[in-house]
Task: inverse folding
């Protein structure tokens, strides 16, 4: 095979992709009449496709990952140096990059101490679920095995993670699921069914979790797994009072609090981790995506020493955490993560996330004044959503086909935004924003101008 065609003949690349690649989250019937999109270069917030078109990427690689932006040569160099010297060794042994990044990471997470390396957010969450189940068997006679998860939250694409998935359209056609996963209600104030607002709603939403615990039996519940801010379920920032009460409930019933930071981690909300916005103290934190900004595959399941110590017992040959993630032993991931964190610190990107997030929300508020279709805007840092409705009084959601049309219109304008789709039945009506943390005011202005143009063309 003459591989030079792949560099000199875009048409050849497109046809090879069409013939052989099974794209994520894609209906391939579309590619019978349209070319698959192929990205070839990125710099900062901008990417270029194989046909030469430039796009401003307001969703960090399509799935909220490239936190420090594209084209970071120093990360590529760090990966090359690490994998050339020692590319891999299974996680039964350590590596220098692994030890270095673990120390850097827990320094940003007071109260957490142990890092378990894996490859993806789904896998990190699977590790946490297995820890909870093993603790149940070792210390609670196997009874405290149930894991609670929240409506609209998403924790991954494996069968175990889907068992804890609060997005029914993501789960559809993949059951039956693992037993012992129990759903609790969402905390979206805009869609509150009890008429409460503010802190009163926050306490009521948390109380709904306690109600589920009492129904199931507190002695059967081992963990509560939540996103600090619900991501793909519509960018849901929990109301005031919610997280404080959730923490109290977990402590009251000896339930491990597992926070899924796969999306919110590494500065997206303006703090290192989303849970730090709310002053809570989790027992387990999982992360991926922004840990290395997509430059290498890495995820982490981070625990307190109290969790870790429950697996130290040399009188029982089955007492240790009998798990392995093969490519958790690759040095490229932690090497990339080290440089990624250094960039976040040196360029003060957490501060920029807060500042540019405020600018973005201000722009979205302006769009809301201009377009009656926007019923609610919400977010924190460079993580925001605009929920579209047919009528502000009834809050009737627009059909998801209009969200898809707005996203497509923005793409034609050279701006990439996201939209909830095929996730929450009847409520796939939110436009999503999660640009890299290097975003500027001009970038945010371009994004919201494109969205405004798209809404006008699609909805009038």
Result:
């Amino acid at each position: 095979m003459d591989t030079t065609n792949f560099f000199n003949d875009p048409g050849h690349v497109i046809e090879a992709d069409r013939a052989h690649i099974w794209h994520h989250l894609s209906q391939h019937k579309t590619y019978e009449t349209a070319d698959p999109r192929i990205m070839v270069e990125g710099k900062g917030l901008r990417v270029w496709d194989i046909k030469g078109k430039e796009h401003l990427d307001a969703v960090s690689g399509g799935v909220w990952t490239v936190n420090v932006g594209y084209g970071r040569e120093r990360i590529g160099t760090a990966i090359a140096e690490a994998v050339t010297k020692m590319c891999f060794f299974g996680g039964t042994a350590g590596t220098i990059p692994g030890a270095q990044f673990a120390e850097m990471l827990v320094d940003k997470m007071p109260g957490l101490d142990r890092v378990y390396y894996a490859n993806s957010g789904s896998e990190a969450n699977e590790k946490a679920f297995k820890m909870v189940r093993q603790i149940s068997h070792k210390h609670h006679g196997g009874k405290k095995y149930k894991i609670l998860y929240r409506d609209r939250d998403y924790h991954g694409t494996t069968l175990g993670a889907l068992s804890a998935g609060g997005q029914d359209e993501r789960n559809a056609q993949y059951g039956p699921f693992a037993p012992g996963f129990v759903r609790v209600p969402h905390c979206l104030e805009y869609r509150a069914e009890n008429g409460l607002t503010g802190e009163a709603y926050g306490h009521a939403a948390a109380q709904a979790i306690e109600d589920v615990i009492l129904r199931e039996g507190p002695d059967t519940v081992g963990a509560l797994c939540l996103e600090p801010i619900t991501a793909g379920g519509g960018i849901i920032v929990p109301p005031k009072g919610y997280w404080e009460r959730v923490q109290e409930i977990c402590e009251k019933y000896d339930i491990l609090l597992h926070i899924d930071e796969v999306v919110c981690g590494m500065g997206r909300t303006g703090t290192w981790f989303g849970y730090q916005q709310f002053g809570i103290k989790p027992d387990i934190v999982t992360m991926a995506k922004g840990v290395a900004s997509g430059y290498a595959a890495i995820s982490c399941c981070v625990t307190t020493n109290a969790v870790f110590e429950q697996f130290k017992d040399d009188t029982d040959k089955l007492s240790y955490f009998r798990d392995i993630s093969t490519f958790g032993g690759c040095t490229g991931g932690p090497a990339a993560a080290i440089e990624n964190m250094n960039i976040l610190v040196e360029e003060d990107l957490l501060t920029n996330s807060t500042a540019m997030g405020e600018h973005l929300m201000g722009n979205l508020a302006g769009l809301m004044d201009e377009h009656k279709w926007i019923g609610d805007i919400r977010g924190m840092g460079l993580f925001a959503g605009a929920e579209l409705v047919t009528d502000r009084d009834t809050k009737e959601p627009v059909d998801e086909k209009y969200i898809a049309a707005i996203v497509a219109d923005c793409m034609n304008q050279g701006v990439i935004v996201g939209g909830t789709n095929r996730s929450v039945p009847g409520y796939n009506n939110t436009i999503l924003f999660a640009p890299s943390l290097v975003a500027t005011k001009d970038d945010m202005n371009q994004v919201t101008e494109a969205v405004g143009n798209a809404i006008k063309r699609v909805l009038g």
